């Protein structure tokens, strides 16, 4: 049999595309034994499905291409779509929408909507060729289709199916690939910042300055370095240079210190005491009453507002929530997601060189790119 459409990847983008193409014969091929495994693992099991505030500014990639896609399926439209299936959501800090119950509820929507598809689960795609149709080879079979949608994601979390097949297929049809790298990932620190490792488990809100961007959210210290939402989003933009933390965003530190308070610095500052003690130790200032601080000590404490350092690296693909880089959007038609180099070949979701910050932006991208593709295909 020759399918109308074959989709590689039963993840967020592949399932959304399949759910919309009801009048076609569709084959979905995935190396996992179950669909939507990454959705199940997302948002701590509650799937942060989208965000109240989504613009191309929240993404790395071609801004025009991204905005056009986001405009054709907005976060409001995604919320309407899932609430028509009675999905219960709650909005949390920073406009993030999470499932009230479980990420399983999102997967079960797609289970209902993809009943018309033929699933080939547990079938890892090894190779794709094209003559008159696409021939998709797995270990056990060759699946043929007139159109091929590559929705195979990036390299992060190989434990739940990630592979480089999307990039290999793209390259075999002449596409260029922006080097894939881990993103939404913790950062390791150099010797000078090893004091941070003693703070494992401590978390509080900071502002992070990275590559001309300022992000505000929670920082988490870990035994490996720094993590938490603000660092994960920052890792998207970080390019080996220096970053800077403002550990006291929205607070006038000098005013606070000059109040001539008799309190110890660690009690006066609205920060976890353990953090202040380690920080003071690292800059060689004694934890003394604020009214006894000397000028040069106040100067050193100002580093709390702009603590600059160069991270050593990141925690790698096994811990990274997404992959930045991927198939260049220059060679993809932004109205249909069809390859400009090979007719009937499409790329959607994370396999493309578009990556969002932490906060529901990556699912929004995966779903919006899938919807844009299906709008183009419906007239076919
Ligand atoms: C732990 C974790 C938590 C996350 N939490 C969030 C969150 O809360 N909110 C958010 O917006 N984003 C989150 N993300 C990111 C988000 O999950 C992805 O950006 C999104 O799933 C990408 O969708 P996709 O369809 O492009 O790829 P995926 O969802 O990764 O799907 C790709 C599919 O292709 C299959 N595949 C790959 N190679 C092959 C092959 N050779 N043969 C057959 N099948 C193959 C894989 O098994 C997989 O099922 C999280 C990611 C992780 C890892």
Task: Give the mean pLDDT.
Answer: 96
Number of helices: 12
Query: What count of structural domains?
Result: 2
What percent strand? 25-35%
In total, the number of strands is 21
Shape annotation: elongated
Using the coordinates shown, work out and report the CATH topology of the largest domain: FAD/NAD(P)-binding domain
Tell me about the largest β-sheet.
Answer: 7 strands, mixed
Helicity level: 25-40%
Going by helix content, strand content and strand pairing, the class is alpha+beta
Rg (CA only) = 24 Å
Which molecules other than protein and nucleic acid are bound? Answer: flavin-adenine dinucleotide
The level 1 CATH classification of the largest domain is: Alpha Beta
CATH homologous superfamily identity of the largest domain: FAD/NAD(P)-binding domain
Any low-confidence stretches, pLDDT <50, length ≥5? none
Distance between the termini: 20 Å
In the CATH classification, which architecture of the largest domain applies?
3-Layer(bba) Sandwich
